[in-house]
Amino acid sequence: MTAYTATVTVRLKGGVLDPEAETTQRALERLGFELEDLRSADQFELDIEADDAEAAGERAEEMTERLLANPTIHDYDVDIEQR
Amino acid sequence: MTVSVLQFGGSNCDRDTVAALDHLGVDADLVWHDDGLPAETSGVVVPGGFSYGDYLRAGAMAARSPIMADVKEAAENGTPVLGICNGAQIGCEARLTPGAFTTNESARFQCEHVHVRVENADTPFTQAYEEGEVIELPIAHGEGRFEIDDDELDRLEDDDRVLFRYCDAEGDVTEGANPNGSKHNVAGVLGEHDHVAVLMPHPERVSLPDVGITDGQGVLQAFGR
């Protein structure tokens, strides 16, 4: 068994309104910054023991599909790194 | 023949719902989620509140608790199931109903009375109303914006599964009457069958005569049929 960290990034699908990101962007603009767009995402770090990186990735994906992301509104990425 | 009103940690409209059902002559009991769904359950209400502190996403945790597997099974066997507010978020997260309820367009918690138009009066939850009737219900939510894939929304509308839309007092479905940015002003939808429904507004809060408005009674009367 090897120790991995799976980094799961969950973000809204393109076209889904993100009012919190819009509010954050406006706040940055009020501070005098110039920016074209701002997107927010949730990131989860999962420490996993697995036989190999593929097995760790599969488990992280299953956890994401079951709970961390809502497929109706979210896309997600999983990155696996050995700890 | 008792309606089960589910309680999760953070539910807070559970007792209001029981009081409203009692007033309508419907037997209802509170059921703590960890105790499982009683075998004699004749209907299920997943009430409003902030289950699990809205951690992760509103309704995400409660939707995956074991009692929701019991609720799905009951729904498949024909038991009426209604999700109100946080219960609506839980219902969508549990895939009992399509779409998702997410952050209001205003990015704020909103607590106000709204008007909704009855879109389909041929369901247990709307049978007491006429199609096109305008009723007044309160909302109290931060994550009530109905979001769904455009194709799925088309199918939902084609199948007449939109139960209520936000509208003005005259019944016109306008952008100005949409409190939270919901797609096509959707306030409530049906699952695959018409005995499973969710809505963001609170019918139980306008069901007791003491409150002055009793427009919500018709929704809860589904459980007395």
H/E element sequence of chain B: EHEEHHEHEEEEHEEEH
Q: What is the C-level CATH assignment of chain B?
A: Alpha Beta
The counted number of beta strands of chain A is 3
Overall body shape of chain B = globular
Count of helical stretches of chain A? 2
Main β sheet profile of chain A? 3 strands, antiparallel
| Strand and helix order of chain A | EHEHE
Q: Percent helix among the residues of chain B?
A: 10-25%
Can you tell me about this structure?
The complex is a heterodimer of chains A (83) and B (225). Chain A has helices at 19-30, 53-68; strands at residues 2-12, 41-50, 74-82. The relative contact order of chain A is 0.36. The radius of gyration of chain A is 16 Å and the shape is elongated. By secondary structure, chain A is of the alpha+beta class. Chain A has a single domain (2-82), classed as Mth169, Chain: A (2-Layer Sandwich), CATH 3.30.1280.10. The model of chain A has no long low-confidence stretch (mean pLDDT 97). A three-stranded antiparallel sheet of chain A has the order 2-1-3, covered by helices on one side. Chain B is of the alpha/beta class. Chain B has one domain (2-224): Rossmann fold. Chain B is built from six helices and eleven strands. In chain B, the strands form two sheets. A nine-stranded mixed sheet of chain B has the order 2-1-3-4-11-10-9-6-7. A two-stranded antiparallel ribbon of chain B has the order 5-8. In chain B, α1 (14-23) links the parallel β1 and β2 (28-32). Chain B is globular and about 45 Å long. The mean pLDDT of chain B is 97. The chains are: A alpha+beta (83), B alpha/beta (225). The interface between A and B is medium-sized, with 13 and 20 residues.
